[in-house]
């Protein structure tokens, strides 16, 4: 039983990333009708916002420390982060330690700006083009962004630790009544799951209970009629593109302590997230979230040694097998709407 719960927890943190990226993909497709293969690059940019903030907070200068002497008795020159000099050693150390959560404040405006520029500068010219054209141009954009990141940050993964308060593991099994040390789980993975649930809930509340969100949902259902009512739906859809970019970026920011980011991380998540969107149903926001968590849990169970000893490599293909089965039995996905991608 403890192994089952452990795999469910592993699946939830993978599913959280899949669901957040798929949610943004579905927002863009549902509002603008664009198949955005550059969405994984937005996850990538978010991850490197976290790396950039961590590096900025760690920038240091040489300072003579009279309390430390070299072997000749001369005061040592030590590297001191600027935040230590500005805010004091304790506050400065805390800021560096909490670089990943602080990066959220930096990433939100950056990702919204990136989303606006991407939509206004490129994607708006492909609204009425075939989906194949949209895929080609956005896939090319994703490759360009990946290469820019590679040129500036290198090709190797960059470790970005979680705050020390969340860096360890907790005895999760004791909370469920198991023996001590039965289920030990990393705290940051639980934080990531809770964070993703807050973001997902905020997006759904925004769309469901605000006037802006109601207009957007009406535009998703019948864009032409909403336009005839004198509402500039294009501006609202541009904002939704920025919101989708922010969701993907925040997913990337918070995932960096779990998986050290490199220039290819966005492409890795993009492919799986598109499978999630198709399984959940093109244009269905609840379907994207449901499929994200479902496929994350299935992939986690498929990675168990007991399963791989019977079916070697099943953990690499389980998501695609499930997608094939679901699309053969339900061509629109789990919660897809009629008419979407059916021209």
Automatic annotation (TrEMBL):
In which organism is this protein found? Yoonia ponticola
Tell me what this protein is called: Branched-chain amino acid transport system permease protein
Return the CDD domains for the record: TM_PBP1_LivH_like
Instruction: State whether keyword Membrane applies.
Output: yes
Question: What are the TM regions of this chain, as residue ranges?
Answer: 16-35, 42-61, 98-123, 190-216, 236-257, 269-298, 310-328
Keywords assigned? Amino-acid transport, Cell membrane, Membrane, Transmembrane, Transmembrane helix, Transport
Kindly list the places in or outside the cell where this protein is found, as annotated in its UniProt entry: Cell membrane
Query: Which top-level group of life is the source organism from?
Result: Bacteria
GO terms (molecular function) for this protein are: transmembrane transporter activity
Q: Its membrane topology, per UniProt?
A: Multi-pass membrane protein
Q: Which family does it belong to?
A: Belongs to the binding-protein-dependent transport system permease family. LivHM subfamily.
Q: Which GO terms describe its biological process?
A: amino acid transport
**Gene Ontology, cellular component aspect:** plasma membrane
